[in-house]
């Protein structure tokens, strides 16, 4: 009997076509600036996301998932490397790129080394290799590449030549063409880069699909063109869009959320000034909802493609966002701070082979974006590199509920002319402590005034990185560990105050709790920093036109 079974197994293996292997195929969809509440399954009653909701209904929705840094570049680097920013050392203001040595341990590279056929479609916002975005190094570390570095815009053809031959004009539909091309294996899509002639039939695949939406760099450039799919023209426009809970109109701000001495809120990039006016917030909300519904449609197409190709029974789908976004809560716009609106993201994992009783679960354990890579490697049967700082979540997805960690740690090191202070946060399900440092950055308004006076190009003045910036960023990393004092602290009871409205750090009643949280912060920041020098290269190119 054993012999017979073995024969059947061998025959089955031989019958495998692309992706039908013993190891699961894995697809990871990452959206950009999508808040936790921008899905039907996370409680949004207005948005239509049936396909993503269906993945959640058949898999695991993590209801307490947080990123580690709430801004594109460091958050995405953290996901790739399973490291806190304080360890990997790459941000818009760091003047650095991920070194080849560090990238060797990025999870897609590890998957490829272990026999996975790997693809990357969409937006990349992590500079990798000696000349970062310029060299094409990152591209070559995937087998299939149909992506652009930095922002794509809503109409990517004009911004990235790789997409110029696409049939569609709109971002989501262009990326959908890439997904179709990846699965067809006919290499028909002009522009897409294939680094091997065709996919080996006996390999499992990994596909990363990364959007530049609902990010405002995408949604803000929507033009409701005649040629746009209807979703982006008419959907949600007949609804009465409510303002976010805790929204404060700019002119009605009485007490700023943070002291003006540490948070220069007026220096925010103009791209986020729409949060000042209620009508503009509603317009941007509609566009974001349209974009997310467009992404949902792509997810529906993807699942249909998996089914047609008989891959649906062995393909894990993961969905998350790189961080959240203020839409005028507390009178604020943008992101990067340690508040829930910035760090709390949707995280959904659907694995078709898990037991029925583990399907459709909502799990509130404390999980982080750095856990995605170890979870992927675990399902792929690959040991995680020692450099990883995240945890394998597969036991939860498989139906076993137990704590992953005692506290979440998040941080903001993107402290620049645009006014945000450096801060770190630790939290469990009830208590959250945030710690802020002196903000000595030169203000954007001063740079803009000087640029105007001397006719210096604004991009050079605001977005160029120089060697001294590298040194400054290193002090941001190291100084809190060397005793730099906090100049402001916040303590919230998340169970009673999920909106983080009432800072009780100064309340004598919570003195002991505050002291306890400070101790936990000291422990967690040390862990986040890790040991040794960061594995980065000097990369003092323009940081980006926007974050
Ligand atoms: Ca982002």
TrEMBL record:
Q: Which SUPFAM superfamilies match?
A: Alkaline phosphatase-like (SSF53649)
Q: Which domain of life is it from?
A: Bacteria
The UniProt record lists the Sulfatase N-terminal domain at: 24-382
Q: Name one Pfam family in it.
A: Sulfatase
Gene3D superfamilies in the record: Alkaline Phosphatase, subunit A
What name goes with this protein? Sulfatase-like hydrolase/transferase
């Amino acid at each position: 009997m054993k012999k017979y079974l073995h024969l059947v197994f061998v025959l089955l293996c031989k019958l495998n076509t692309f992706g039908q292997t013993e190891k699961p195929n894995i697809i990871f969809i990452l959206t950009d600036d999508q808040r936790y509440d921008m899905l039907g399954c996370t409680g949004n009653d207005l948005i239509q996301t049936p396909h993503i909701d269906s993945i959640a209904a058949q898999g695991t929705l993590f209801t307490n998932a947080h990123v580690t840094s709430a801004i594109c570049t460091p958050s995405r680097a953290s996901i790739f490397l399973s490291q806190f920013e304080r360890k990997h050392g790459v941000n818009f203001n760091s003047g650095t790129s991920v070194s080849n040595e560090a990238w060797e341990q990025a999870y897609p590279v590890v998957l490829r080394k272990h026999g996975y056929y790997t693809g990357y479609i969409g937006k990349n916002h992590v500079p990798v290799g000696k000349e970062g975005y310029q060299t094409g190094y990152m591209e070559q570390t995937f087998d299939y590449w149909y992506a652009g570095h930095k922002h794509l815009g809503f109409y990517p053809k004009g911004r990235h030549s790789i997409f110029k031959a696409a049939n569609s004009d709109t971002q989501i539909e262009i990326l959908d063409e890439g997904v179709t091309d990846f699965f067809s294996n006919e290499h028909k899509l002009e522009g897409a880069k294939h680094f091997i002639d065709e996919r080996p039939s006996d390999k499992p695949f990994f596909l990363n699909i990364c959007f530049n939406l609902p990010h405002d760099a995408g949604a803000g450039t929507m033009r409701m063109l005649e040629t746009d799919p209807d979703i982006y023209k008419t959907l949600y426009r007949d609804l009465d869009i409510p303002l976010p809970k805790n929204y404060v109109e700019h002119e009605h701000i009485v007490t700023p959320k943070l002291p003006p001495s540490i948070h220069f809120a007026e220096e925010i990039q103009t791209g986020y000034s729409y949060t000042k006016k209620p009508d503009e917030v509603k317009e941007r909300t509609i566009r974001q909802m349209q974009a997310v519904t467009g992404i949902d449609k792509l997810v529906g197409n993807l699942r249909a493609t998996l089914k047609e190709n008989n891959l649906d029974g062995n393909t894990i789908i993961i969905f998350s966002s790189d961080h959240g976004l203020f839409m005028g809560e507390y009178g604020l716009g943008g992101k990067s701070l340690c508040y829930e609106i910035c760090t709390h993201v949707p995280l959904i994992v659907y694995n078709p082979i898990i037991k029925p009783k583990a399907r459709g679960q909502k799990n509130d354990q404390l999980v982080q974006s750095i856990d995605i890579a170890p979870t992927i490697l675990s399902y792929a049967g690959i040991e995680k590199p020692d450099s990883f700082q995240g945890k394998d979540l597969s036991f939860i997805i498989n139906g076993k509920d137990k704590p992953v960690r005692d506290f979440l740690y998040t941080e903001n090191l993107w402290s620049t002319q645009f006014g945000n202070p450096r801060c770190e946060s630790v939290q469990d399900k009830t208590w959250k402590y945030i710690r802020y440092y002196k903000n000595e950055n030169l203000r954007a308004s001063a740079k803009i005034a000087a640029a105007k006076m001397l006719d210096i190009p604004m991009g050079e003045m605001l977005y160029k990185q120089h060697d001294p910036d590298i040194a400054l960023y290193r002090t941001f990393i190291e100084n809190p560990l060397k005793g730099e004092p906090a100049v402001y602290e916040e303590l919230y009871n998340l169970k009673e105050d999920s909106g983080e409205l009432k800072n009780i750090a100064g309340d004598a009643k919570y003195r002991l709790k505050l002291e306890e949280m400070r101790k936990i912060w000291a422990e967690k920041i040390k862990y986040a920093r890790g040991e040794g020098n960061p594995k980065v290269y000097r990369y003092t190119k323009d940081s980006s036109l926007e974050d």
